[in-house]
Recover the amino acids of this structure.
């Protein structure tokens, strides 16, 4: 099982966020994610750590993000809490290796998905700490899984998410080189859901109104990485089935933001069908793994679409609350969404809160920003690549020399990238810079350059300190969508018409008494929203990036254009959900409208018609 991945990732000791990315991670640490164990019994009193609350996916979901968050910020208090929980989990492991918190007589009824996830979490913890206990813990846990699966198969979520266990299996194999681990990979894959046959004979071409594992949106975004991970065993093209799955799902259930709709199950292409927050976090991780394994930068453009647009839009700007579902055209975020048009979600799915609809997203959203920060730089034997050019730095040893690469930038809001490369002795390597999609021209140190395959490579000997300045100009495009509708994109930022809103703070959801700073919030429109594009001219306004980078009131970039007022209408005239498309596209009047990034909005219209003035 040779690892043929195109790149390897750096650790939290090597990569450090800077600028707006550091502020975003600090918001997360000071917000719900960093405090969840203090306020939610499902984490603080989880069975995983000796309590009586949830003993399944919520604790490992949260640790999967909380651990790298603590260590990439090098926050002593956060690290101490992460260490405490991992210590308890390790100490609670049974003598035979069983690691999941259930009674011995109930092992056969325990859905192993949570066990797979916890094993992955322990790998994350090792990469942050180098804790030598982890190898023995995983050896015993995976040996126990091997025995456990004799005479029984995978069921429930483990059946749909079998490939997640490959991550800790490969990690252990690289250290012990024992053949039973390959056998375990094959066993788990053969017991798991067959996404190959499912996508090759795809039959879910309409909005799905019945809850199923095989149409659940989180499983869909996770499955993108399934055969890329398994390709280490099979030797197959790691991208083949990822593209088949993504392109097929996008054809029937895509959105202008690049994500697959699912509220909770596959929901078609309408801009008033939503998608679940867990799906966005897992989609980001899939794209990161797909780039790491295949080296294809196209996956990072999809990652950026999620990270800069849909993911921040479904979290409040202070990272204390979140939605379960978001809509591309989101006219309101009420508690009682009527009429309910979602495929499998309660009426509270659209509001912002502590635990709207279901607590999986409350635990799982924590992984997205820390894993994204760890995707800023990668390396292989020949090169270090700036994969996602957001403010960050990497300090490592390459071919015996200490190397530090620092990037100062406000990308994606602005196009200037300032790299500082420092080495303590002469060393030759390729420094590669990924050029994102949607860039119209690239200038390096004052010279316009042509870039092949979206990667610019500087192959030279590095000695001392050298600065590289890259200027990116972005295309601004009105892109077509279904039913003669359109959306605006500049680089990998999508733009929306922001709707002025009234915020109502309340207590609706069921988790715990909701007081500041984690209230439930509803948003209702009080401003104009019924517009159509009426011009191909766009004026860009750049501003400072706020302390909250995805501030709803102070976006870092806005675009002004001429729009037409039209008669759009709402479903049953209830005011909560706009029609999927306007009932009348005839212009009533014209005015200048200022759009802002999708990720900087609560209420918005994104996919709208285009009319002639």
């Amino acid at each position: 099982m040779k690892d043929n991945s195109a790149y390897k990732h750096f650790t939290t000791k090597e990569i450090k966020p800077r600028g707006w990315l550091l502020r975003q991670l600090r918001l997360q640490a000071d917000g719900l994610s960093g405090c969840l164990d203090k306020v939610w019994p499902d984490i603080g009193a989880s069975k995983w750590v000796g309590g009586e609350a949830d003993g399944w996916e919520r604790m490992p979901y949260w640790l999967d993000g909380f651990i790298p968050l603590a260590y990439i910020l090098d926050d002593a208090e956060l690290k101490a809490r992460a260490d405490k929980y991992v210590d308890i989990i390790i100490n609670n492991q049974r003598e035979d290796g069983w690691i999941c918190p259930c009674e011995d007589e109930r092992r056969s009824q325990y859905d192993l998905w949570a066990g797979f996830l916890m094993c992955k979490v322990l790998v994350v913890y090792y990469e942050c700490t180098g804790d030598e206990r982890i190898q023995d813990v995983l050896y015993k846990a995976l040996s126990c899984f091997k025995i456990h699966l004799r005479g029984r198969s995978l069921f429930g979520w483990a059946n749909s998410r079998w490939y997640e266990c490959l991550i800790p299996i490969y990690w252990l194999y690289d250290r012990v080189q024992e053949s039973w681990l390959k056998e375990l990979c094959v066993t788990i894959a053969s017991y798991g859901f067959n996404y190959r046959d499912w996508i090759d004979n795809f039959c879910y071409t309409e909005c799905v109104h019945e809850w199923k594992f095989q149409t659940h949106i989180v499983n869909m975004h996770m499955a993108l990485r399934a055969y890329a991970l398994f390709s280490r065993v099979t030797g197959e093209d790691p991208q083949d089935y990822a593209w088949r799955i993504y392109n097929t799902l996008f054809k029937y259930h895509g959105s202008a933001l690049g994500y697959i709709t699912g509220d909770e199950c596959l929901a078609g292409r309408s801009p008033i069908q939503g998608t679940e927050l867990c799906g966005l976090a897992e989609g980001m991780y899939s794209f990161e793994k797909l780039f790491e394994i295949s080296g294809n930068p196209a996956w990072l453009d999809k990652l950026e679409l999620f990270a800069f647009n849909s993911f921040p839009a479904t979290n409040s700007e202070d990272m204390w609350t979140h939605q379960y579902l978001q809509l591309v055209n989101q006219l309101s975020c009420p508690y009682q969404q009527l009429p309910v048009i979602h495929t499998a979600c309660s009426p509270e799915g659209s509001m912002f809160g502590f635990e709207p609809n279901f607590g999986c997203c409350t635990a799982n959203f924590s992984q997205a920003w820390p894993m994204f920060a760890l995707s800023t730089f990668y390396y292989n034997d020949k090169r270090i690549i700036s994969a996602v050019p957001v403010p960050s730095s990497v300090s490592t040893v390459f071919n015996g020399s200490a190397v530090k690469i620092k990037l100062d930038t406000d990308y994606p809001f602005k196009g200037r990238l300032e790299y500082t490369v420092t080495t303590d002795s002469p060393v030759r390597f390729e420094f590669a810079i990924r050029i994102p999609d949607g860039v119209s021209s690239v200038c390096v140190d004052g010279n316009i350059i042509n870039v092949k395959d979206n990667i610019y490579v500087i192959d030279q000997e590095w000695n001392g300190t050298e600065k590289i300045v890259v200027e990116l100009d972005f295309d601004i495009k009105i892109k077509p969508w279904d039913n003669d509708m359109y959306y605006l994109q500049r680089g990998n930022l999508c733009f929306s018409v922001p709707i002025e809103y009234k915020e109502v703070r309340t207590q609706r959801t069921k988790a715990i008494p909701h007081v500041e700073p984690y209230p439930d919030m509803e948003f209702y429109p009080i401003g104009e929203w019924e517009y159509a594009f009426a011009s191909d001219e766009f004026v860009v306004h750049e501003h400072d990036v706020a302390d909250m980078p995805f501030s709803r009131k102070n976006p870092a970039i806005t675009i002004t254009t001429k729009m037409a007022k039209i008669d759009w209408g709402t479903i049953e005239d209830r005011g909560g959900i706009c029609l999927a498309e306007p009932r009348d596209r005839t212009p009533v009047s014209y005015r200048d409208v200022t759009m802002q990034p999708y990720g900087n909005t609560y209420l918005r219209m994104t996919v709208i018609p285009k009319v002639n003035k």
